[in-house]
């Protein structure tokens, strides 16, 4: 819950800062760029795996095998 509030706050900071920065206040342009980088880095943890649309009657099967840590090998 706190994360979604923080994300919304960052989104508002980005949009308002860029608006004021383009209007002629370069400090706000820098603030907007920094806030945008924070937003982008927070979303890297949640990669988009699939994007599409389903029609009536279509199915989508999702399977999560967990996350494999680098340097570990799974036998099998």
Could you please describe the fold and organization of this structure?
The protein is mostly helical and 76 residues long. The protein has a domain at 2-43. 51% of the residues lie in helices and 0% in strands. The protein is built from two helices and no strands. It has helices at residues 2-22, 26-43. The longest helix is centred in the first third of the chain and has 21 residues, at 2-22. The chain is elongated.
List keywords for this structure.
mainly alpha, 0% strand
What integer value in Å does the Rg equal? Answer: 19 Å
What is the global morphology?
elongated
SS-derived structural category = mainly alpha
Total helical elements: 2
Low-pLDDT runs: none
Describe this structure in a few short sentences.
This protein is an all-alpha fold.
Give me the secondary-structure topology:
Elements: H1 2-22, H2 26-43
């Amino acid at each position: 819950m706190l994360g979604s509030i923080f994300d919304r706050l960052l989104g508002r900071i980005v949009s308002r800062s860029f608006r004021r920065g383009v209007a002629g206040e370069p400090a706000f342009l820098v603030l907007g760029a920094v806030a945008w980088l924070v937003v982008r880095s927070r979303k890297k943890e949640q990669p988009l795996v699939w994007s599409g649309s389903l029609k009536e009657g279509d199915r989508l099967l999702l399977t999560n095998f967990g996350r494999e840590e680098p340097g570990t090998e799974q036998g099998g």
